[in-house]
Amino acid sequence: MQEKLIPTLILALLCLLIFWAMRAGWKSRQKRQVQVGELPPVPAHYDDAESVLAVPGVYIATTIMGDWLDRIATQTLGVKAAGTFFVFDNALIIARDGAEDIWIPATDIIAVRTESGMSGKFVEKDGLVMVSWSLNGNAVDTGFRTQFAIDKQSLLSAIRAIAPQASTTLPDWPVSTLSR
Q1: What whole-number distance in Å separates Cα of residue 37 and Cα of residue 138?
Q2: CA-CA distance, 76 to 95, in Å (whole number)?
Q3: How far apart are CA 114 and CA 94, in angstroms?
Q4: What is the pTM of this model?
């Protein structure tokens, strides 16, 4: 019994150290990304508004545009959650289970396209709907995986209809200073 106690204690301390380092890294990322600012609140008039389209699926994450491994750690934007993607006449709302809803005005949409993955979720070719948008002046990518593959094209078409200015490819944008 004695010969197993010391290795067990060392292993437990090592696990605690790893978890502490992960938490410290996440907190450090949040401090570096403080200039992202607050998520804009969803305007109250959307509570009673009829959406053009509602698609169930999984919110993957919001990252710095073009750097799909660099999650935004503030405002729960880096946390994966089940949810519903709503398209309205002039905005998008991603209602996330257990997290604050994301409201994206159509005028802030930079690009709409599909990708094969981002930030810990990699799927088949063109399996994710990716919306590039301006969050308080910072270019970010938000990924969403539709629950049913058939909904993906409908979602892309509906977003492009309300944001005709949006590119269909990853646009050139000034390099972000969020992760530095």
Answers
A1: 10
A2: 13
A3: 17
A4: 0.79
Per DSSP, what are the bridge partners of residue 53? 87
Q: How does pLDDT run across 62-111, given as a tens digit for each residue?
A: 888 887 777 787 778 888 899 999 999 999 999 999 888 999 999 999 99
3-class SS of residue 77:
coil
State both tokens at 6: 């010391």
Q: Which residues of 122-134 are buried (b: 16+ CB within 10 A; e: fewer)?
A: eeeeebbbbbbbb
Of all residues in the chain, the percent with pLDDT exceeding 90 is 43
Cβ neighbours of residue 178 closer than 8 Å, sequence gap 6 or more: 32, 33, 35, 36, 64, 70, 72, 138
Cα end-to-end span (Å), the chain: 49
Which DSSP helix (H) or strand (E) runs through 169? none
